Amino acid sequence: MIPIDGTPASEKKVISYQEANDSVGGYCHPSSHWTGGDPLDGASWSALGPLALMFGKGYAVVISDVGNNGDRDPHGVFAGKFAGHAQLDAVRAAFQLQDSELNPDAEIALFGIAGGGVGSAFAVESAQSYAPELDIVSTVLEGMVIKPRTFMETTDSSVGAGFGFATLLGLEPWYPEMKLNDKLNPVGRAIADVYRDECQMPAYFTLPFVPLASLFEPGIDPITEPSFQRAYDDNVLGHGAPASKVLITSCAKDDSPMSLVPAADARELADTYRSRGTDVSYQPTDCSMDRAFTDPYGWGTDLFGMQTIDWIAHNFDN
Question: According to the model, what pLDDT value does residue 35 have?
Answer without folding.
Answer: 84
